[in-house]
Amino acid sequence: MAMRQIKEWCDDALRVVFPLVCEVCGRSLSRGEDSICLHCKMEMPRTRLHLEEFNTIHQRLAGRAPIDKAGGYIYYYRDSDFARMIQRAKYNNRPNIMSQLTACYVAEILEDGFFEGIDFVQPVPMHWFKKIRRGYNQSEVIARAINKAIGIKQCNCLTKVRQRGTQTRKGRFARWLNTRNAYRVKNIDMLRDKHVLLVDDVVTTGATMLACCEAIHEASPTTRISVLSLGVTHLQ
Ligand SMILES: [Zn+2]
To answer: Which of 15, 126, 194, 212 could in theory staple to 137 by disulfide, Cβ–Cβ 3.0 to 4.6 A?
Structure first.
């Protein structure tokens, strides 16, 4: 008997005992669906920003570091079912949702050439204390999922050196002040003349990503920088 068939039977039996539900709409998932049902996957508010040469993410990151490509999977409307799904992945110890969303996004933009020429994926780092408290860094989950899908290696060239409270309720300028000089580059030799893709879960004002991009650019001006996130908020 084929191992695959045994695995499918086991999966079906588990579904009866512990029915898996869609993280967005709560419906039971069918075989082959993972975290999100097919219907919700079709309905996701995709941005398609990666097809624009200068998009809203580029605008938010306009500063001292030139940004090459910029992509974000879905629009992040506060209190929407999709935003809640990303929040659960971030705060409720559900990294599988992040991995699943990343795998979908990679598959959708691969043919558009988004990953061509990229040497490494760099997750936005989290302060070590916060990582211990939360259990994982969601950006590292995204980087690992990209590596698993298309083999681009993760690099570990950034550290967060300061943590001054949460960014959640701060405005654009306050966030920029708070994140400025909060990141340090290490392993500079690894970055020199390379193209690095910086990844994070959600881009709001862009202050966090901007601080990371500026840190990389200052330490290694020959490094090309692209960025990718799963959610992109609308600026008010
Ligand atoms: Zn659903």
So the answer is: 126
Q: CA-CA distances (angstroms) from residue 236 to 49, 57, 89, 174, 203?
A: 18, 14, 25, 16, 14
Question: Beta-strand (E) ranges in 19-160?
Answer: 70-75, 120-123, 153-154, 158-160
pLDDT of residue 11 exceeding 70, the answer is no
Distance (angstroms) between ligand 1 centre and the Cα of 3 equals 29
186 Cα: distance to centroid of ligand 1 (angstroms): 41
Number of domains, the chain: 2
> 179: domain CATH number?
3.40.50
- The CB density around residue 155, as the number of other CB atoms within 10 Å, is 18
First to last CA, the chain: 58
pLDDT of residue 210 exceeding 90, the answer is yes
**What's the gap in Å between 23 CA and the centre of ligand 1?**
7
Residue 180 and residue 83 in one domain: yes
